Amino acid sequence: MMSRPQKYIEGEALDSQHAKSNNALKLRVAVLVVCVLLVSALVVTYLLFEFLKTREMLRNLELKQKNVKADVTERLPEMKPCSTVQPTCPEPEVKIITQPCNIIQPTTPQPTEITTITQSYSTISTTTPQPSEITTDDPCYKCEDGWKQHGENCYYFSTRKSSWNASRTVCRTQGGDLVKIDSSEEQSFLKTTIQQITGRYEIYFWIGLTDSAEEGKWLWVDGSPLNERLAFWYFHEPDDWTEEDSDGEDCVRMRATWFDKSCKAHERSICEKPAECDFTSVLEQQ
Fold first, then answer.
1. Is the entire prediction scored with pTM above 0.90?
2. Which fold has domain 135-284?
3. Which parts of the sequence belong to the C-type lectin domain (predicted)?
4. Considering 7, 16, 93, 186, which has the largest number of Cβ atoms within 10 A of its Cβ?
């Protein structure tokens, strides 16, 4: 049997070495590619984490800045003269005094006791103070215990939290409704009372204003439209924010200024109703 020439044997050995060298090179390249991909994935993950972390920090800073601006804006009016913060209040009407007078005065002869009361009340009516003289100390106007009197109205500052609609129901069961703000002087009274009750401006109270019927058309609970000259919105409010409630913010809460809020949110509330004239106490003073 003939053996293969020596030069063929050496050639086959050299080819085998080249093949092994190529395989080793391919393996090293594959390992390098995998390492590069892993490093790239780690870098992308780190950059994404840093981006999310930075965005969260910026959001927190924006919220803090908004809160600081709110506090500064709301406390600034307290440093101004009273003539600036509290404009001249429109003269109140005397409807609550004059209307009962027409009801009590009889048109037919009455028993002696009722006639005496009527005559006494007639004397009071002739000396009724002019609108500019009416004060919250007028003995004719009375509010129930727990209600705060201001002019001819009584106000109840409820610390129980509930939705706007539930708060309104509670007010109506007490003979009133969520407060309607008719003047700068009334707004100032409510703001001051909130600060006295809570000791700070961070506590919100529902008021009787909503645009739930038509977006952007703000109506009071009695159906009257909002007078924009007597609107006390906070900066950039109302904004109808939808991140907490997809239905937006259709009801109004206040502290020193007004903010729109989802009607489903639970807040404290302010009820309002007319003060009643206590004729008995008036006659006892005669």
1. no
2. Mannose-Binding Protein A; Chain A (3.10.100)
3. 150-272
4. 186
